[in-house]
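thread: overnight batch results

M.L. [08:02]
morning all. the overnight job finished for the chain we discussed friday. pasting input first so we're all looking at the same thing
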Amino acid sequence: MPTTLDWSHSDPESWANYPIMLATQRGLTVLGADYSVQPGLAERWERVTDEQGREVYTFHLRRDVRWSDGSPLTARDFVIGWRRALRGRERGEMADLAGASEALAAQERGAPEDEVRAALERVGVEAVDAHTLRVTLARPRSYFLARVANVYIFYPAPAADLEGKSDEAVRDYFDRPRDGRPLALGPYRVERWDRAGERVRLVYNPASAFPPPLQAGETPAPVITLMKSEIGPALYERGRVDFVFMDSAAALRVRRPDDLQREPLLSTYFLAFNTERPPLNRPEVRRALSRALDREALVAGLLPAARPSNVLLPPDLPGAATPEEAARLPSYTPVAAKAELAGVPGLDRPLRLVYRQGDGFLPEVAIAERVVTQLARVGVQVVLEARSDFTAEISRRSAQGPRVYDLYLRRLGGDYAHPNTFFTLFEKEGNHQTGWETQAGGEPMARFERLLEAGDGEPDEAKARALYAQAQEVLVGEQAVIAPIYHPDRYFRARARLRGLDVDPFNFLALRALRLAPAEAAQVGVAP
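M.L. [08:03]
and the structure it wrote out:
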């Protein structure tokens, strides 16, 4: 269920809102099947670098795009939407815009309202005219066009509906859908949001410039009901819903229905090391532990299919590692690993491996148990601890300072189709909780961040890819902060009468292309 319908304000649990936002809104760009950037709300754009070294985009908006009430999309809608996002709960996501840092700093220090508004007006988003939007970034960012395609706080907001309204009136606008509001650009709009019943009702938006791609005899689904249910699979079996996620990896080992479908995700499941805690504070020890892992054996038989890997960037991601680059990263060499780990001071105690408690679409328990078995073969003892408070536990520190865990298992999913989205977690300000910023006085992380900064600012794709490959080698190879294990997939079931209903590579329910087979124009039910 969504936590908000206000796509400009969002919140730290924004992932829960994506299915609704992606069905009802659009970005300046969209991603093609090969993850290339394609025109979205903008039919074309130009990019230049100004005399101050800032990257300037001029977007030319499509003139046929209208909100669900028939009013035209304008550049002002982006100005209002992005300024609102700069005041929202995830405003730091807008930091790439020129002037954003000043606006963010003013808010952080509690500056007077007039000062904050003046700072927002100086941020690099400008309506040149009704159909031309100028965006200025503080510095070149190679991921920007991919990011505005998928990160919904960059979507426009209906300025005519929101300008001049009080904060309370705006909250009411998004919290209580009615009278065709909030407006939508996508093929669906929200008609009702039942928080108590945990249901959202979407209705087809005939005014959308982005209708589903209908084939002969197909029709749009007039109504879609999304619901949260602990018995989704049972409802599906009874014919009460038409789509359900398979959220139990354990269940998939027992039964694999004929209508089971699989979506490879832009995602990586990895083992992380506490680099501050001896003996894991030595990179050669971490590399040896990574080489002790047989990735194929760790996931064999646990799922209908699996993609074991020793690299961070998924193979379908633009800029993913070549076979030659992957070969330079730690891979399964147990004899060498055992020899390197023999007699290492500190390995006479068991290492504590923490993972998330509960069943899910990742076979975490089985993988954790297999990690224990594989590391035992090279003389390393590991004890397991499942935690319902996983995030708090991996950040918990001892009285002496370092975090208390030794190893943890975690999934990282991409927010957009660019290497940057996989690396940001491991920067100094990222929520990696590995302590690797302390290694060698901080030099390896500083070098890693310089490579990322250079890649993010490099307009030549081939040169940028080479820089990201070097960054990956520092993180996964030289420093072995993490040991990638596999690239997860998402499984779901859907009725044959539903066409175009899918899960996207970012792990979100994709409704944009949904249509019904002939003679099936009826309400569609979806349960997570």
